[in-house]
Amino acid sequence: MVAWAMRINGGGAASADWFEARLRRARTLIPAAEFDTVIRAEFGETVTTELVDVVGVADADPVDFYNGGVIEVSVGDAVIAPSSARLQLTGSPSHVGLLNGKSWYAASLTRLITPVDPGNSRVDLIGLWTDDANRVGLGIWNGSGGSSTNWAGYTLVDSSSNSSLGPLLDGESPVWHLAEMWFDVDTSVLTFALDGVSFSTLLDADDLPSTPARLSMLFGADVANSPFATNFDKACVVVRSPVVGEAS
Fold first, then answer.
1. What 3-state class would DSSP assign to 16?
2. pTM (2 decimals)?
3. How far apart are CA 115 and CA 119, in angstroms?
4. Rounded to whole angstroms, how far apart are CA atoms 150 and 90?
5. Which long-range contacts link 7-13 to residues 24+ away (Cβ below 8 Å)?
6. Cα–Cα distance between 193 and 85 in angstroms, integer?
7. Nearest to residue 89, comparing CAs of 57, 55, 126, 34?
8. How far apart are CA 157 and CA 135, in angstroms?
9. CA 26 to CA 103: how far, in whole Å?
10. Could you give the C-alpha distances from 21 to 18, 24, 236, in angstroms and in order?
11. Are 109 and 21 contacting, i.e. CB atoms less than 8 angstroms apart?
12. Euclidean distance between CA atoms 101 and 81, whole angstroms
């Protein structure tokens, strides 16, 4: 069994409950999709995640004192700029079909644990990545006016960007956030949400890449400064079989 194709059960009762809740929410949000598969990641196990495409200074370490297993990603330092990296499931193939041709739901539980300069940083709370020119994410993104001070959902299609602004940043307090994004193929609508509140702007299929993607979060610091760190507890993608495991 490949590393990313993990089942819902296992990992402790609390963890299993979180993934079951995400599956139930996906079925509620997109009832026609008949979701039955959760591609899950719990970041306490180093075998299931890896930090790739590192530029400058970036590091990822398990945090032992959380029961669910948390990984801390730190990016940047006071000397080297720019710095960036991508956190992905180890060895995962592209697993979300055609992004604008299948219904899907993605979610994560994460927090920023050190101050971030939003004007010089890029942080994905949750992301689906094909390549640097084609991806979808929710976090702090500097590709659109206003997103340096707001949470934002974004898409890149052949480097052409679209965005949906969410709430203002939370003043860098170490608060856990539930980040969600989902696409309903029947309505051709992409929705972003933070802590259960949907962003007002919806994107459509024309704003989405037509390429397979994998669960993958990106981080970047454009200037040499104090590093910022992000804690990830859990993340998942909910899809309908047999999309899971299809070749890129």
1. helix
2. 0.88
3. 12
4. 31
5. 7/38, 8/38, 8/40, 11/42, 11/68, 11/69, 12/67, 12/68
6. 24
7. 126
8. 7
9. 10
10. 5, 5, 11
11. no
12. 38
Strands 83-89 and 49-55: antiparallel
Count of Cβ atoms closer than 10 Å to residue 171 Cβ: 7
Domain 13-239 has CATH 2.60.40.10: no
* Residue 156: both structure tokens together: 């890149």
CA-closest candidate to residue 122, choices 208, 222, 191 = 222
**pLDDT tens digit string along 18-74?**
999 999 999 999 999 989 888 888 765 555 678 899 999 999 887 765 555 688 899
Question: Across the strands, what pairs with 168?
Answer: 150
Q: Which residues pair with 55 in a beta bridge?
A: 84
Closest to 3 in 3D by CA, of 135, 108, 107, 93? 93
Q: Which two tokens stand for residue 20?
A: 């079951």
Dihedral sign from CA coordinates of 9, 235, 93, 240: positive
Within 10 A of 131 (CB to CB), how many other CB atoms are there? 12
Domain ranges of the chain: 13-239
43: helix, strand or coil: coil
Segment 168-174 shows an average pLDDT of: 72
Rounded Cα distance between 88 and 91, Å, is: 8
- Count how many residues are written for the chain: 248
